Structures are given as C-alpha cells and as structure tokens.
Amino acid sequence: MKRDCFGLHPRNDVEQQMSKLESTEFYISKRIGRAIMDYKMLSEGDKIAVAVSGGKDSLALLRILNDRRGFVPIKYSLVAVHIDLGYPKSCAEILIKHFKKIGVDYHIEKVDTLKKTKPKDINCFWCSWNRRKALFEASDKLGCTKIALGHHMDDIVETMLLNLFFQGEISAMVPKQELFKGKITLIRPLAYVEEYMIKRFAKEEKIPHQTCMCPNSVTSNRTKMGRIIHQIKKTCPDVKKNIFRSVKRVKHDYLL
Fold it and tell me: What are phi and psi of 95, to 5 degrees?
C-alpha cells in the first residue's frame, strides 16, 4: 500500500479503525490526527512526555494519544508526567491509579517551590514558569524527544487576545515549537479541538479530573478573555474559529 508524503497510510484506513471509537472520542481523535499531520508533530519512535496537570484537557489528551497507538502507522511511546508543586489536595495519588488503569507509564515530579513563595506572589505566570521548568527537566531525564501539552483551540485563542490586549503584540501558542536548538519539541495535538468537546468526552468517560487549585484562577486575565469570547459568541457563533484562523490569514499589506 502506498504511503503519503508523511509516511502515513491513506486517511481512510486510519478512519476505518477510528470508527470503532465512541462518537466524541472519534471527533476529537480525528482532529488530533489532522493537527499531527498538518504540523508533522510525530516521528517514528518518538518518546512523548504528556504533561498531565490533573485537569480534563491533559487527561483527555493522554487517553486519546494512548488509544491512537493501536491504529496509527507511526509508532511512539508515552509517559505521563505530573508536576506536583505542593498545592493542597494533591491529585498525584488519584492520577497514579488512573495511569495504571489505562496502562501508561508515568512519572511524578515533586518540587518545593511553593514553600518558598508567598501566596500574594502566586499567579498564572509564576505557576506556568515553574511547572514548565520542572517539566523540561523531568522530560530530559526520561529521554523524551517530544512534550505534549493539553492546550486546545480555546487556549490558543485566549492567548492571542491576552498578548494583544496586555502585551501589545500579535502572537499565539503554536501547535509545534522546537526549543533548545531542537533538543525538545513542544506539541499541542488538541489545537483543532474546542473545549466543549473535551468537557463532553471527560464526562462520558468519567475521567477523574480536577479543576485548577490556584486561588487566583477565577480572577486571572485568561479567565477574563474567556468571558469576552463567550459574550461575543452570542452574536458571532464562529468567533473562536475566526480568531484562530486569522493567525494564518495575515494581510501584511494592511499592517503598520
């Protein structure tokens, strides 16, 4: 059987195998596959660290990437990596049970930065920076070539608005990003998936997820962007898709 330019079998074969999945997982898996193809996210033999926070997005991504290993032509391995910053009500034990249940390798990285930080200094940037640093270090120790993050279309759109409103620049999360001269590559396979589908999948599959434990999550600027998008969606149902697509449709002749 002939393969396409990415070394993959024709999509019909893959979709035939995907048809065995339940409807919501089929929908998400199909869009993950499209993002992987469009951005050449995976290569044969990749060892992927899936960053699992304990939330629905990363757990859904882990589950679907694991399920896809059964029918996609590219062979890759997974290891779930959870960074425990020391927040109250740690979900590490719940996650370990879940990892064992679905049969994936896992690594829990405990760091003590929270003990050295005053509550008033904790914000989204602080949390993200410390998690990302620990994630990079853990992935390197585990010999992973790729790190899969659970950011979906809503996250990418909100980030674009955050950068526009608060940084005065036009930029967003990219679905694939090489760091440290290619030593580590970040991939976001959920880039084409809207959050509401992930919520539906997590509910249907009874995935044991938790909400963000950060006390500032409700008042964060990202949450405000989500509210703005929700308000605009009432008069423009395609607002998220339009913002997402706009990054690929830049008219340079009409920029300063």
Answer: -65, -40
The stretch 62-77 carries a mean pLDDT of: 95
Place of tokens 């994630």: 135
Tokens at 110, concatenated? 């405990």
pTM, entire model:
0.86
Alpha carbon of residue 254 to chain centroid: 32
**Averaged pLDDT for residues 215-223:** 67
With beta carbons less than 8 A apart as the criterion, state whether 152 and 190 touch: yes
Element at 156 (helix H, strand E): helix 153-162
* Residues in CB range of 235: below 8 A, 6 or more apart: none
**Is residue 3 scored above 70 in pLDDT?**
no
Distance CA 35, CA 29 (A): 10
Sign, CA torsion 232/245/63/24: positive
